[in-house]
Write a structure and sequence with these properties.
Layout lengths: L11 H13 L5 H15 L3 E6 L5 E7 L2 E7 L14 H6 L13
């Protein structure tokens, strides 16, 4: 894809976070992070998510995207405390979890 020049201004705190992320991940610069964010935005902008609360803690969820519908029926949703020693890629993979969305692995 051809690259074009674009000049704008960003909130200084937001730009600091973008630059830190680029440096942390060994990327070419802030523009790479911003491009990825824009790609994600345009990929997900047509996605609709609907939830319906049912009795007994159940809820149903519909995700509508590009003419496809994903239906989920979930028994419970609860929030857990984050434990970096337990909730990391290696441990979750070993326990049978499969990453379906999220930050890509950089190699």
């Amino acid at each position: 894809m051809a690259r074009g020049r674009f000049t704008t201004t960003y909130d200084s705190e937001l730009l600091r976070l973008v630059r830190e992320k680029a440096e942390r991940e060994g990327l070419d610069g802030a523009s790479t992070v911003i491009e990825e964010a824009l790609r994600m935005y345009f990929t997900t902008m047509d996605v609709e998510a609907w939830e319906k609360q049912l009795s007994g803690g159940w809820f149903k969820k519909l995700i509508i995207c590009n003419g496809h519908v994903v239906f989920e029926s979930v028994r419970i949703r609860k929030q857990l405390r984050y434990n970096p020693g337990f909730h990391n890629h290696e441990v979750l993979s070993e326990r049978g979890w499969k990453k379906v969305h999220g930050q890509r692995e950089r190699g």
